[in-house]
Design a protein that fits this description.
With 229 residues, the protein is of the alpha/beta class. It is built from 10 helices and 8 strands. The structure holds orotidine-5'-monophosphate (OMP). The site of orotidine-5'-monophosphate has 19 residues, from strand 3, strand 8 and helix 9.
Length: 229
């Protein structure tokens, strides 16, 4: 099965992460390694997950000068990951450098750009000088991302139907901020349930705490699968 669920392995170290990974297999979910686990466990752990057959999304959200980001993307590709990301706010030159670093082989990693973090509200945007609405900012950054040859964006599911319509079905939409109806929202602002997110056009659902903080994470993952059948 080509699963659309990406479990965010937001754990303090590889021992904790492996407790969940050992219960999973690649037909159930893809795995995301983000800043916390990567900083603690390092690239060898990413390679271990790849070796176990999981498509791995390396979520380091690169945002730096174009040369640095290009070199970082090339290093990430060497780990054998399925997907990686950068911040669209890094600008066109940075996006082009990231994309160029991955080459054109059929099995290159997918490269996506974060538009506006799902934790950001309109109030947060004003604080950093962004004067438009979240939808307008996301659309603008997604267009910039597509123009520069990337494979898709990270956005909230609340923007998914607009982006599918504007940017076409082949442009991947990866949506965090996914909350089953009974889950706590936490620090996320622009959230949606798994079924609603898929109906809106999300290609992949990134889900962390509703699974990793559940008393039985595997049961929580299986319940989400049931929900979206
Ligand atoms: O790039 C991401 O994955 C990401 C982008 C974004 O805008 N918002 C967002 O929450 N994420 C990541 O998605 C995951 C969401 O986790 P939960 O909020 O626990 O489900 C975290 O690992 C975040 O780092």
């Amino acid at each position: 099965m080509d699963t659309k669920i990406i479990v965010a392995l937001d754990y303090p170290d590889q021992v904790e992460a492996l407790k969940l990974v050992q219960q999973l297999d690649p037909s159930l979910c893809r795995l995301k390694v983000g800043k916390q686990l990567f900083t603690a466990a390092g690239p060898r752990f990413v390679e271990e997950l790849v070796k176990r057959g999981f498509p791995v999304f390396l979520d380091l959200k690169f945002h730096d000068i174009p040369t640095t980001v290009g070199l970082a993307c090339a290093a990430a590709a060497n780990l054998g990951v399925w997907m990686m990301n950068v911040h669209a706010l890094g600008g066109g030159a940075m996006l082009r450098a990231a994309r160029a670093a991955l080459g054109d082989a059929a099995d290159r990693p997918k490269l996506i750009a974060v538009t506006l973090l799902t934790s950001m509200s309109e109030v947060d945007m004003r604080e950093i000088g962004l004067q438009d609405t979240p939808r307008a900012a996301v659309l603008r950054l997604a267009k910039l991302t597509k123009l520069n040859g990337l494979d898709g964006v990270v956005c909230s599911a609340q923007e998914a139907s607009m982006l599918k319509q504007e940017l076409g079905k082949d442009f991947n939409l990866v949506t965090p901020g996914i909350r089953p109806a009974t889950a706590e929202v936490g620090d996320q602002h622009r959230v949606m349930t798994p079924a609603a997110a898929l109906a809106a056009g999300s290609d992949y659902l990134v889900i962390g705490r509703p699974i990793t903080h559940a008393p039985d994470p595997l049961a929580a993952l299986l319940a989400i699968h049931q929900d979206i059948l």
